[in-house]
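#struct-queue
[09:14] JT: dropping the first one here, sequence first, then the structure tokens:
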Amino acid sequence: MPESSSTATVAAEAVGFTGCSESGRVRTVNQDAFHVGVSRQRRVVAIVADGMGGHRSGEVASRKAVELMREALDNSRFQPPVAIARAMQLANLTIFDEAAENPEHQGMGTTCTVLVLDDQVGLVGHVGDSRAYLLRDGSLQQLTLDHSWVADRVRQGILSEEEARQHRWRNIITNTLGSNPEVKLDLLHFRVKEGDVILLCSDGVSMLLSPELMTRILTENPPEAACATLLEEANSRGSPDNITAVVLQVNRVEPKNKRYELPPGGAFEPVSVQLGETLGGVRQVEDDYPSRGFLGRMRRHVLYPYRFWLLGSLYLILLILLFSFWR
């Protein structure tokens, strides 16, 4: 089950990780949820979700998102990038349908940020304004882009970072799981290096703590102590929202051959896909992260988009030849 108000800690030889969550000093209900653990495929999976909606609907949405994502990634036979896209699509449609069928949950939704460590490849799937950070060589890098009204204005140069933090519309999220039958997924990858520290957190942490403070906490503490300190610092500042953090530390990297290729654009560059009720968005991820081998080469062939037309033409020609032969 997803965690929402407790601590989960696992020490592994290759990766050490921990996660913790609290309702904060103001809220009485914790609408955050998280999971961190090792999947059946021996991949490290971390998920943070921040729910929204009246009454306890946000809690329902975030818990369901984490549970569905965890189970889908645990049972998927697809390559990790495709598995993330399919899991996000499933979670979005399931939460949307539940909200439509239950009036008390109408309008509920949730952010969702997921990390999959596939040996030397790190993959991040992102919806909403929870965040993923990478601390490498003393420098903290935000991996995800916030899907919020103020973040859009910052990227357009209309607002400064400080103005965005103080803006009255800073809580308006423009992209969430469950709010609509279609959702935008940002998917990115990076090469994992020994010594990397990765932080996933809800906005209850990122809106209160400066990048400099988070860098110091993550640099000076192992995962469990870092996670606890992040929440302590957020609480000391009043924590008007729920606060959740997952911290992972890479102790060793064992590169292995992958059955999929990485996009040519380079690391840390998110690819955005629209996930709806069809597999169009999933197919785009399959094209961006193509499988190696014969099937992968076929998908990259210039004639692949015309495969059904070509097969239909060949079938028609065969029928004509057979008809001519039997006359």
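[09:21] JT: and here's the second one, same format:
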Amino acid sequence: MRALALLLLLAAPALAHDPRPLPLGDGRISAEPRPGQVFACRRDFPGGGGAHAAGPWIRDGHWYPTERPQVEGRVAWPAARLEVTIEGAERVLRLNRLPLHETGEYPIRPGSAAHRYDRNPNRVTAAEVVARLPAEPTPLTQPACVPMGVIGWALSGAAIFNAFDLAGRDAPAWEIQDLCNGHPERGGVYHYHDWSPCLARFAASADAPVGWMLDGFPILGPAEAAGREVTNADLDECHGRVGEVEVAPGRRVTTYHYRFTREFPYTIGCFRGAPARR
């Protein structure tokens, strides 16, 4: 178990800092479940947030993660907390929205490299959240669309959002994140749009969840136990598959689960199960 956990810790940050370019996800919005796209609940995007300028790391239909600047600072959140319990037929997450790891300094510091492209004026704020998810979710006959805002919760206490910003662009490519690939939105919710290198330490093994989506299915990291990177080619139209998951220490079950990947849509493309009310 310790060897698997160490492997994930080593593999995940390497994936996060891979110099290979990634295809830009702008416009990959679908009206139905399709691999490599997001079956979005809304097709119109109001804009009004996110990056205000395209960075030089976006070019020729691709973006280069290692060329994108990072939000400066290292801010700790000692009051952060997260508790996960099974209560009857529900998996209950109680948290206060503060991450159990460091973040960058928000609002983004004027004059910094990040501020040149993204002036994110938002602050990370606490709020009590009780998320009641099905402990044993069942797949829908037809997958459900993915909304904007919270679509799941990571075991770091941070929210998981879909792959788009408010302008319908590829959020990880356009927006500037911090050392943990996260940032706050206008309501103060700190969240990820893609894999965070800071999430690896919250998984018991490479086969264990790093979070739970609102339909109750787990989401795992981008590296398998043997260190192999998971790609879109391994996953279905919702960005998941059926396989063995260590849902609790020492308890393994064969179940549907999602995977983070380096490739768009990064988290999920649709809900395989019925999402709980946010």
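[09:30] RK: nice, looked through the second one.
[09:31] RK: Residues 32 and 190 are 29 Å apart (CA to CA).
[09:31] JT: good to know. The first strand starts at residue 22 and ends at 23.
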